[in-house]
Design a protein that fits this description.
Distance between the termini: 20 Å
Pathway: Nitrogen metabolism; (S)-allantoin degradation; allantoate from (S)-allantoin: step 1/1
CATH class of the largest domain: Alpha Beta
Number of domains: 2
Number of strands: 19
Strand content: 15-25%
EC number: 3.5.2.5
CATH architecture of the largest domain: Alpha-Beta Barrel
Order of helices and strands: EEEEEEHEHEEHEHEHHEHEHHEHHEEEEE
GO biological process, one term: purine nucleobase catabolic process
GO molecular function, one term: cobalt ion binding
Structural class: alpha/beta
Keywords: Hydrolase, Metal-binding, Zinc
Largest sheet: 9 strands, mixed
Number of helices: 11
Helix content: 25-40%
Radius of gyration: 21 Å
């Protein structure tokens, strides 16, 4: 059994940064000692580097099986490990088959053998055709489910309507899992917008109203659920529109189990700075104006937004239409899985955030949301020995060559950032050191009811 210790003058424990020595036995944190405590095992001193809980990214599209030319478990989880992510949750679409039945979920589980560099949970999906299959899917171990209120871009994953949501909510409430919603409603009136190489033309085609109306609908349905005694957990993924923040705040004040996330691209990029014809910046909902971005940061500060996740949504370079600059035809999705903490820390430290805040937003709260907080998200006795060792002062430029996910493209190439992951440990296994991978994949599936 593994038995070793890590120490640093800066360890994040119980919402504080303090000197500490962490003793690890097997997969778990065995004890937390004073920095100068003597233990009868090998000890690694990381000096002033910050030892943080491994990040938990609850929004990742891995696309395997079926679309591994877009991404796969081996490359995605390597990128995660390089970025200090020790657990992620895979989305139910873009893979073939989509994860909407127990049988499809088993196909996905069969595809992960010997490919996981970090631990991995899974979301299922709700589509109009699978309401009767939800009990079996949830009993099989998915951590929750996701739906789209708008065309997902994947024929096998059609959007739901209010009647489908009403049918699904009591089942999800019984299992006490979150219902993740891609919250855009095509309200019409913008379908005649001509999308050309101008980024603003794409922005105009997906207005804030689409998000605002979708979120208002979900609040109404959440109220219905609460009134019926279910109070289903509703979660808004990748929030982009600042105009929906008040609606979310009101839902929380009413006692609805209503949460929302946003992503690094909405917090670190403004539409005014996106060059025309640069399809790598296309995502849905879109990256909006700088003032909108500032309002999202304010919502992170005051708690209207609960946490930050990547929404890593890769595809092949051909599907991005990089050469033609055709924004309309390009697949919508941002690839940046391994750079999240550096991107967020670069912006956040200028706004008065500290690394305890970042750990809460990218680890503790995401673990809690996904139902993984009994083993992930904090450095505490009994939890998995998941750590990221972080140099908060290192500066580097993101390049295509350093990318670990399947295709070395990202809208962040050329961007200077501060803060660099030095080491990643998953359940006590040292999996990544200064961008180099150690040994073999040791990640495990994380299944509800089997944690």
């Amino acid at each position: 059994m593994k038995h070793f210790a890590l120490k640093s003058k800066n360890v994040i424990i119980e919402d504080q940064i303090k000197p500490a020595l962490i003793e690890v036995k097997g997969d778990f944190v065995h004890a937390i000692h004073a920095y100068n405590h003597s233990v009868d095992c090998q000890t690694k001193d990381f000096g002033d580097y910050v030892i943080m809980p491994g990040l938990v990214d609850s929004h990742v599209h891995i696309n395997e099986p079926g679309r591994t030319e877009w991404e796969g478990f081996n490359t995605a989880t390597q990128a995660a490990a390089a970025g200090g992510i020790t657990a992620l949750v895979d989305m139910p679409l873009n893979c073939i088959p989509v994860t909407t039945t127990k049988a499809a979920f088993q196909e996905k589980l069969d595809s992960v053998d010997d490919k996981l560099w970090v631990d991995c949970g899974f979301w299922g999906g709700v589509i109009p055709q699978n309401i009767d299959d939800l009990d079996d899917l949830l009993n099989a171990g998915v951590l929750g489910v996701k739906s789209f209120l708008i065309d997902s871009g994947i024929d096998e994953f059609p959007n739901v309507e209010a009647k489908d949501i009403r049918a699904a909510m009591p089942i999800l409430s019984k299992h006490d899992v979150p219902y993740l919603i891609h919250a855009e409603l095509d309200c019409g009136g913008f379908n005649d917008v001509v999308i050309n190489e101008k980024y603003n033309s794409f922005l105009a085609s997906r207005p804030k109203k689409w998000e605002n109306d979708a979120i208002s609908l979900m609040v109404d349905l959440a109220r219905e659920s609460k009134d019926k005694g279910d109070n289903c957990k509703v979660h808004i993924v990748h929030l982009s529109s600042d105009e929906a923040l008040d609606t979310i705040e009101q839902a929380k004040k009413e006692g609805l189990r209503f949460t929302a996330e946003t992503c690094p691209h909405y917090l670190t990029i403004a539409s005014e700075s996106i060059p025309d014809g640069k399809t790598l910046f296309k995502c849905c909902p879109p990256i909006r104006e700088n003032q909108n971005r500032e309002h999202l940061w304010q919502a992170i500060t005051d708690g209207r937004l609960n946490f930050i996740v990547s929404d890593h949504s890769p595809c092949t370079p051909e599907l991005k239409h990089i050469d033609t600059g055709d924004i309309e035809k390009a697949w919508g999705g941002i690839s940046a899985l391994q750079f999240g903490i550096s991107l967020i820390w670069t912006e956040a430290k200028q706004r008065g955030f500290n690394l305890v805040d970042i750990s809460r937003l990218m680890s503790t709260e995401t673990a809690k949301f996904a139902g993984l907080d009994s083993i992930k998200g904090e450095i505490k006795v009994g939890n998995h020995a998941d750590f990221l060792v972080f140099d908060p002062n290192a500066e580097f430029v993101i390049t295509n060559e350093m990318i670990k996910h399947r295709h070395n493209i990202t809208p962040y190439a050329g961007r200077s950032v501060t803060g660099q992951v030095q080491h990643t440990f998953v359940r006590g296994h040292h999996v990544c050191q200064q961008d180099n991978f150690i040994n073999t994949p040791i990640g495990r599936p994380l299944l509800k009811g089997q944690l």
